[in-house]
Amino acid sequence: MKRSFAVVTDSTSDLPGEWSEKYGIEIVPLKVLFGKETFRDGVDMTSDEFFTRLAASSSLPTTSAPSPGEFADVYRRLAKDHDGCISIHIGGRLSATAEAARVGAEAVKGFKVNVIDSQSVSMPIAFLCRVAAECASLEEATAAVERRVPKCRVLALLDTLRYLEMGGRLSRAQAMIGTMLDVKPLLLVAENAEIKPVERVRTRSRAILRMVEFFRSEQPIEHVAVMHAQAPDEAGEIAAQLRRELPDFEIPVGQIGCVLGTHTGPKALGLVYLKK
Amino acid sequence: MVATGKATGVDGQLFKRSLLGSLNWLAANHEEVNRLNVFPVPDGDTGTNMLLTLQSAVEDVKESNAAEVSKIAKLASHGSLMGARGNSGVILSQIFRGFARAVEGKSSLTPAELAAAFEEAANAAYRAVNKPTEGTILTVAREAGRAAATAASSPDATVPRVIAAAAAGARSAVLKTPSQLQILRDAGVVDAGGFGLQLILEGMLKTVEESEPALAALNETRRPLSPASQVSLALPEGGWGYCTEFLIEGNNLDTDLIRGQIESLGNSVLVVGEPELVKVHVHTDDPTSVINLAGGYGKLLKLSVGDMSTQHRRILETEGGADTRPPRPNGAGIVAVVAGRGLVDIFRSLGVDAIIEGGQTMNPSTQDMLTAIESVPYDEVILLPNNGNVIAAAKQVVGLTKKKLHVIETHSVPQGVSAVVSFRPDRSGEENVRAMKAEAERVQTIEVTHAVRDTRSNGVRVKKGDVIGLINDRLEIAGDDYSEVVNKALGKLGPDSYELVTVYRGEQASDDELKRLESAIRSSYPGLEVEVQHGGQQHYPFILSVE
User: At the topology level of CATH, where does B242-307 sit?
Assistant: First the structure.
């Protein structure tokens, strides 16, 4: 490998498997717990397996961040053939992962780890990792990534707020969703990983329309992907539509992982992008 | 000053007594006006609305000793506007407004001036309506004015003759309304609002015709002309004690029974409403006894006891969370007119700042809406009438408040819900209004109720008691049961273009009926998602939103 520094992320980045191989990006898994059973996100359990299990489970799973020790092990291993590392993670507001990475990095003496709080979640982190991987030096990569952190956006349409609410990430009041009617929230994760309600809609097709309209108003952008939880057809249609409007973009479609899925629930759709 | 009915001119006090006469005559007959409701949905409250509007006009003039007719007319105009309820109430308030404008600066009216004022009153009413329809109160007002003008041109014209001509003109115009309006012809009735105006003119005539002191004449007219009269109004000359008003919330409330008991404790007794919510208004020397008595029937709301010189009207609620919410970045508040406990909760949970209880049969007054709008801590307010019968009164509020008021003309509960759902606090008031209007227009409304009489409307033949389905306010389907009517209505809308049906269950619908309706929709239209909510509304066992 020509690059002298390593690139590390965690499983909430939804980094496509082929990117991991092609760019040499290390993924540290978070964990999802069904009762006493623990699964490493994307390692012991795929997202398809997760959603199947979620549908059958009577109680909701919980999630946990990797431990500092697990990060330290990864950094120690990477230290053997790299002279530094950039470690890009889910927003500190949403998860303890970045903090665990920082503590783990301190335990590995003599190996420089730049831990980046992406202030975001899902594929924007993967885009940041790819930007870093294409840089020549750790300093250059760190600067390029830090410059893009405030540009990360996740526009998410949840079929229900139940999962996010159970996970304590957002209340119905914060989402401006009443307690009576089934209202679908369109949420935006912007700077500082703040979850903001963008719009309330009653039907899914309206919600998708509004999501795409909002995305259009966010141009210009640098990268965009369509994410879903057990909704590949709708995600594919959105991507196909966007590819017609933005022919210069590749627009990958991906399924979110087990840990994010715990908080979004099934049928979630997301337009994730980096603003220019 | 002219003290008796043998008037040569109409001064302030004669006009005041005429209004009292109108009020009594309308009070005695307003149930008949209610029964003339044209559409086979039970919103027969035209008479009540006109009565409450006229009563509000009288409340404002009764304390005045002004000798000038212009002053009394101005007070009546203001009072009727503040108390305007329902479409006919609003039009009536415009009639008073036109009359007041015409008599501006005059202390007494000659027969010719009176006739001109009647004509101008009708013109003002026409101007106030977007699309004037002939065969309604507007036509009756115009014909009354014309007849008055003809009578006034005669050399021996007198005030009683001019008023008599106006009343006769109104009567013959009312009889012609079915020939002008298909809907009346189909239902076999005359126009309710027009008939209400006829009664008002006849009440005036009774006042001026009497040579007896006016108040004696009034007591005469209110005797048992209409035993069905829902309202009893006595109008003593002062010393009314405390004006006491409140709402009783309870179950199976019997307005007749409550009225009977309250009548023994005071006068100007007004007891109206529904089995669930009754409005009580009484002038009494002993408010404590009234409150104790009413408290036995249910929960008392919006209680107000005060001296007679201040206005006492239904206070509007702003309770429930409005104050605990953080202020919105766009500085815009939302006020909605809603009836039914479940629907009130739904609107509140969606972020509405103040709710005015009312709707199909309890049309809130302009004043009710104004109070609610003023109570909201925002200078810009979006008002959702949520009922076709409330829109006219809602639009009147625009000229009465200093706040920037937007009325989104929501005709139904589903339209109101759609509008509120699309509200965004980060978007300016104007942008919100645009988006909310667009969303309200996108949703389809199905209302299910029972026909209150045999009729034919929109090509649909309906027998009394039939289940009828209205799609976006138009009668489209009649049938034997709710499921059948709803399924036909959904079929008419074309279910392939929609994905979600929300069923708002009314107070009258049973669990069993709800279950049957739900499974009927699911089995006939498996592609539609069905959501059921408790609406708690009266009169409509089911309201459905289709989107």
Answer: Alpha-Beta Plaits (3.30.70)
Under 8 Å CB pairs connecting chains A and B tally to 46
Tell whether B441 is within 8 A of chain A (Cβ): no
Q: What's the helix, strand, coil split of chain B in %, to 5?
A: 45, 20, 35
Return the amino acid letter for B434: R
Range of the domain at A123: 5-149
Q: CA-to-CA distance for A264 and A267, rounded, in angstroms?
A: 8
**A201 - beta bridge partners?**
A184
In this complex, which of B422, B425, B533 lies closest to A181 when CB atoms are compared?
A: B533
DSSP secondary structure code for residue B129 in this structure: -
Residue in A179, A201, A205 closest to B349 by CB: A179
The complex scores an ipTM of: 0.79
CATH of the structural domain B332-442, one choice from 3.40.50.510, 3.10.420.10, 3.90.226.10, 3.40.47.10 = 3.40.50.510
Residue of A nearest to B503 (CA): A181
The partner residue sitting opposite B351, judged by closest CB among A176, A201, A205, is: A176
Smallest CA–CA distance, residue B354 to chain A, in Å, is: 15
The distance of A203 to chain B (nearest Cα, Å) reads 7
Chain B residues touching residue A183 (CB < 8 angstroms)? 350, 421
Q: Contact, B59 vs B77, CB < 8 A?
A: no
Q: Which residue has the tokens 């007891």?
A: B271
> What's the domain count of chain A?
2
Per-residue pLDDT of chain A in tens (276 residues, 90 and over written 9):
568 999 999 999 999 999 999 999 999 999 999 988 999 999 999 999 999 999 998 888 988 889 888 999 999 999 999 999 999 999 998 888 998 998 899 889 999 999 999 999 999 999 999 999 999 999 999 999 999 999 999 999 998 888 888 777 777 667 776 667 888 889 999 988 888 888 888 899 889 999 999 999 999 999 999 999 999 999 999 999 999 999 999 999 999 999 999 999 999 999 999 999
Q: Are residues A155 and A118 in the same domain?
A: no
Phi and psi (nearest 5°) for A52? -60, -45
Q: Is A76 on the interface with B (CB under 8 A)?
A: no
B418 reaches A (C-beta below 8 A) = yes
B433–chain A nearest CA distance, Å: 15
Which tokens belong to A138? 């750790």
Query: Which pTM value belongs to this model?
Result: 0.68
Strand-strand pairing, B277-284 and B332-338: unpaired
